[in-house]
Amino acid sequence: MANTLQSCSSSVSNLVSKSRFLGGDLGSESRCFGSISFPSKLPTLPNKSCKSTRMAAVVKAVSGFDQPEVDLSLSPRVNSVKPSKTVAITDQATALVQAGIPVIRLAAGEPDFDTPVAIAEAGINAIREGYTRYTPNAGTLEVREAICRKLKEENGISYTPYQILVSNGAKQSIIQAVLAVCSPGDEVIIPAPFWVSYPEMARLADATPVILPTLISENFLLDPKLLESKLTERSRLLILCSPSNPTGSVYPKNLLEQIAQIVARHPRLLVLSDEIYEHIIYAPATHTSFASLPGMWERTLTVNGFSKAFAMTGWRLGYLAGPKHFVSACGKIQSQSTSGACSISQKAAVAALGLGYAGGEPVAAMVKAFRERRDFLVKSFSELDGVKISEPKGAFYLFIDFSSYYGAEAEGFGIIENSESLCRYLLDQSQVALVPGDAFGDDTCIRISYAASLTTLQAAVERIKKALSPLRRAVHV
Ligand SMILES: Cc1ncc(COP(=O)(O)O)c(C=O)c1O
Fold first, then answer.
1. Domain Aminotransferase class I/classII large, which positions (predicted)?
2. What is the distance in A from the centroid of ligand 1 to the CA of 406?
């Protein structure tokens, strides 16, 4: 058995150049990855050469003591789930920077701004004033009342505090909603490109993700006819995300109305409306909450949070609003897993909601900066031959179609086959970390996060263009 383990480990390094790109975090020494030196302490990788995972998973502890064998096998549920590529690439790029490699990180879905001072002060005061204890499972009444006011004034949807569940980030709100409403065999309808976690969350609930592709030429918006043709009696949950991660598309109200009319014809179908990028939107685009449409309140689970608009990713605070029956079910899951969210973050969230309409001046200043960056990137990449762009109307991502570069051969690297190898090439050649579109269900594209200063983006564009130019020649000759 020990031999099996040894042969598994020795083949890990052979997998480095491909698997490591999307693998776990890195240690501190150096190892070669293309022309970049990568740290050498390897993460534990799934080993393709281990024929029987069950057999290979049983390992005798190597020590001077006689210890029982440990069964390292994992549940089929966790084995069915893919790790998040965005988290993996972000961690990897961070580790490279720590190892002294000047990587420009444009992979993270995280604003580069600090949390606005008034919010941070509220958090500090919360600690000073002793708000450091457990809160009610659903969140403090104070924050839930503030959320209800916000939803009424900004979104035109009425909830009582008992229809609100505050969680440790919108991510928790979404997984709990999926777990609460989906039964094994149910279908979760997800337009692609999608946020990486939706299909995996469906799988965690033993439900089946049904992916509906959209077109860049249609600004990545769902075609209502396609939706209608895919709905069955097993369809339980439609997940909408507007403004979208990864495309930045914003669903216009009339399209949402068409979708609502289709949804209304399917009694089993609920809608999870992920509105976490709501405030990061570029006029004249406007945000419509799906629950505000006629007949949709009863079947919509609205998710929002503080991470993006308020630059509060580390505070971990999000929420779900919906009919009490569903919200209570989500609360039950939360009560047996994490309980109430951080007391300090809830005080900070009250301050965030007190900043004014749509986050007031501090959020408007961030949105202005995001808009300038979007304009810069759209202009810069539009100058490149063979790329297709749909101008984002919100969020802070650009999802660019680079597929005309696929098939090109890069000297010393090999063939650029797909979005993953193009990202690997760009990390290798230009030291810019981006996320391959296949992580979001669209292999033609690459996601660029513009949550970085204009100067950083200028440097990144220069490096990317330089790395792409020999490829362009290769494609066009
Ligand atoms: C579309 C979308 N929904 C939800 C989340 C989760 O946000 P958080 O858990 O930080 O509130 C993210 C974070 O990247 C996101 O992009």
1. 102-464
2. 30
